Amino acid sequence: MLAWQAMKKARKKPVACLTSLQMNDDMTRARSIAGEGGSEARAKPLPSLASLVRQALQGAVYPLSTEQLSCVARENAAPAELLSLLGALPRGEFRSIDAVEFALEAEAQERSRDR
C-alpha cells in the first residue's frame, strides 16, 4: 500500500467528539489525580519548621554564622518567612543543623510569650 493510500484510509475512521461535560469530567478527574484543586489540595499538611530548615540549609558545611545561614538558605530558595526567622537569630556561630533548629524553636517560644 502506498503512503497516500494509507493516509486516505486513516481519514475514513469516524472521529469521536467529546461533549463539554465529558471534557470537564476528564479534566476534573485528571486534576484530582494530579493533586490539584478540590479537597485533596486543602488536606495537605504544611511542612514542619524542621523540614523547611533542613531543606533550606541542605549542603551547608558547619560551623556557620547567622549571616552565612541566611545566605545558604537564600541560595536554596527558602521562603521569605524562614529567611526572616534565620535573620532574627542571635548573632553567633552554629555548629550543626540541630543547633539551628534549637535556636529557632527557642526564638519562636520567646515570640509567642511576648504576644
Can you walk through the features of this model?
The protein is mainly alpha-helical and about 120 residues long. It has a domain at about 50-115. About 65% of the residues lie in helices and about 5% in strands. The chain has helices at about 5-10, 20-35, 40, 50-55, 65-75, 80-85, 95-115; strands spanning about 65, 95. The chain has a two-stranded antiparallel ribbon with strand order 1-2. Helix 5 (about 65-75) packs antiparallel against helix 6 (about 80-85). The longest helix has 18 residues, at about 95-115. The N and C termini lie far apart (about 80 Å). Residues about 15-20 have low confidence and may be disordered.
How is the largest sheet built, in terms of strand order?
1-2
**Could you report the average pLDDT, rounded to the nearest whole number?**
77
Q: Which structural class should the secondary elements be placed in? A: mainly alpha
Subunit organisation of the chains: single chain
Proportion of helical residues? 55-70%
**Head-to-tail CA distance between termini:** 82 Å
Biggest pleated-sheet summary: 2 strands, antiparallel
Total DSSP helices: 7
Structural descriptors:
single chain; 115 residues; mainly alpha; two-stranded antiparallel sheet; 7 helices; 63% helix; 3% strand
